[in-house]
Design brief:
There is one protein chain. The chain is α+β, with helices and mostly antiparallel strands and 479 residues long. Among the domains are: 108 residues, Up-down Bundle (Methane Monooxygenase Hydroxylase, Chain G, domain 1), CATH 1.20.58; 61 residues, Thrombospondin type-1 (TSP1) repeat (TSP-1 type 1 repeat, Single Sheet), CATH 2.20.100; 130 residues, Mannose-Binding Protein A, subunit A (Mannose-Binding Protein A, Chain A, Roll), CATH 3.10.100.10. It contains 6 helices and 17 strands. It has a 5-stranded antiparallel sheet, covered by helices on one side. Strand 9 and strand 10 form a beta hairpin. Helix 2 runs antiparallel to helix 3. One of its GO terms (cellular component) is extracellular region. This is C-type lectin domain-containing protein. It holds the Pfam family TSP_1. It is found in: Secreted.
Length: 479
């Protein structure tokens, strides 16, 4: 009876060993391995089965012990010894199996750490001028367990960001000192300036706001006005009809009257002359012509008058009066009045102050330049002194072509006043009539190239196609 129980016990112990061998084989590299989760589940099931088997075997050993005690005087010491030996063998077997299972569980449950995916980059620590950004990852995919290795590498990395320099917004310098007044009396203007360089705008910074130039009135006191005589009045009547008398004429210091500290006119206010000196008829004779009286205009053409009297001798006592005119007139101050030309950039007072020109550096065709001049109440210029003008323009603007007011066909050009300029003119550069410059629609251009000024000093003009775009010169028309 006990031998049968022993075989049964041995058979169950063998089952434990077989199960442990199967677990060991399942972990070998040459066997298709299940997942760790499957293996852990299998080990858990195995532990449950072993526990159940231990309970069953222990129960059978107890039954065997009871049966042995019920046998009377049958090798009791031997049976006790055998039973104890069986119990010890079972205990040793189950203890060793349990320890090996625990060891396998620890081996199979061992897990190395693995990184999660990187997080998004953090916000840069600076918006410009160079900053730092970071991103992170966590060793939780999975986390290391049961003696597994931690994740290799860094949990945080950083990188440079926003390296572009920061914008620098412009700032004004201090105002300069006031410049000189443009008039010594009668009201003028003075200016002062500042510069956007404290600091200058950079890297997309905003420019300075406000004006870089301001002006103020200066020298407001009116200018002195010196007095000037009016024309002489007509002679007054003679104080006597014969035998000698006196007549008078006057003038007034009101053309203009002195003002603001100006000087009064020099000379006499009243003149007198003898008249009717003879008691008897005397045929009249003219005196010398008087000095010319003041001109009616200071420039641009006026009239002046002188007079004579029939007193050399005067007709008296029935004598004949002088024949002819008592007064005479002639033109005076015929010189051209000075041109008023604005004191501004682009304006040129040319031809000895007789012509005001305005230079436009916009690149336009001849027709467009003419239209722009007209819109500004100007006309395309007919320079009165083109040889000197081209030198001035070269010094200010360099080598250029400038549209002027001449237009024509071939090599004959007509100015707006009707005068002509053709290839025989000393002002026109002969030999420049290339085919593209001798079309049916040519326009005149002023040449300011330094080489032409040097090699052709007296020939400032050339023909150019009217469609070519150049800067141009307008003329200020005078009243």
């Amino acid at each position: 009876m006990w031998l049968t129980s022993k075989r049964s016990l041995t058979s169950r112990a063998t089952l434990v060993v077989v199960l442990m061998v199967n677990i060991h084989l399942a972990t070998q590299d040459d066997v298709q391995q299940p997942s760790n989760l499957d293996i852990l589940q299998a080990i858990t099931n195995l532990q449950s089965k072993i526990t159940s088997l231990e309970t069953e075997i222990f129960s059978e050993i107890q039954d065997l012990r009871k049966k042995m005690y019920s046998m009377e005087n049958f090798c009791s010491e031997t049976l006790h010894y055998k039973t104890a030996l069986l119990e010890n063998s079972f205990s040793e077997l189950t203890n060793n199996s349990t320890q090996e299972i625990k060891t396998m569980i620890e081996i199979l449950a061992k897990r190395d750490g693995s990184w999660s995916t990187w997080s998004s980059w953090s916000t840069c620590t600076a918006t410009c001028g160079g900053g730092v950004k970071q991103r992170k990852r966590v060793c939780d995919a999975p986390a290391p367990a049961h003696g597994g290795s931690p994740c290799p590498g860094d949990a945080i990395v950083q990188d440079n960001c926003n390296p572009d320099p920061c914008p620098v917004h412009g700032g004004w310098s201090s105002w300069s000192s006031w410049g000189g007044c443009n008039a010594i009396c009668g009201g003028g203007v003075k200016q002062r300036k500042r510069v956007c360089d404290a600091p200058a705008p950079a890297h997309g910074g905003s420019p300075c706001t406000g004006e870089h130039t301001i002006q103020d009135n200066c020298n407001p006191d009116p200018c002195p006005v010196h007095g000037g005589w009016s024309s002489w009045s007509s002679w007054g009547g003679c104080s006597a009809t014969c035998g000698g008398g006196v007549k008078h004429r006057k003038r007034v210091c009101d053309a203009p009257a002195p003002a603001h500290g100006g000087l009064a006119s020099l000379g006499e206010e009243t003149l007198q002359d003898n008249c009717n000196p003879d008691p008897c008829p005397v045929h009249g004779g003219w005196s010398s012509w008087s000095s010319w009286e003041g001109c009616s205009a200071t420039c641009g053409g006026g009239r002046q008058m002188s007079s004579r009297t029939c007193d050399n001798p005067p007709a008296s006592n029935g004598g004949y009066q002088c024949a002819g005119d008592r007064t005479r007139e002639e033109n005076c101050n015929t010189q051209t009045c000075p041109i008023v030309c604005p004191e501004a950039d682009g304006f040129i007072l040319s031809a000895g102050g007789q012509q005001c020109l305005q230079v436009f550096m916009e690149q336009l065709s001849w027709e467009a330049a003419k239209a722009l001049c007209m819109n500004k109440n100007l006309v395309l210029a007919k320079p009165q002194d083109p040889v000197e003008l081209r030198k001035y323009l070269n010094g200010k603007y360099g080598d250029k072509w400038f549209h002027v007011g001449g237009r024509g066909t071939g090599s004959v050009f007509q100015w707006r006043d009707g005068t002509l300029l053709d290839s025989s003119s000393s002002m026109w550069r002969s030999g420049w009539s290339r085919s593209d410059y001798t079309s049916s629609d040519n326009c005149l251009a002023l040449v300011t190239y330094n080489s032409d000024i040097r090699d052709y000093p007296a020939t400032p003009y050339s023909s150019r196609p009217c469609s070519y775009t150049y800067p141009f010169i307008c003329e200020v028309l005078q009243e």
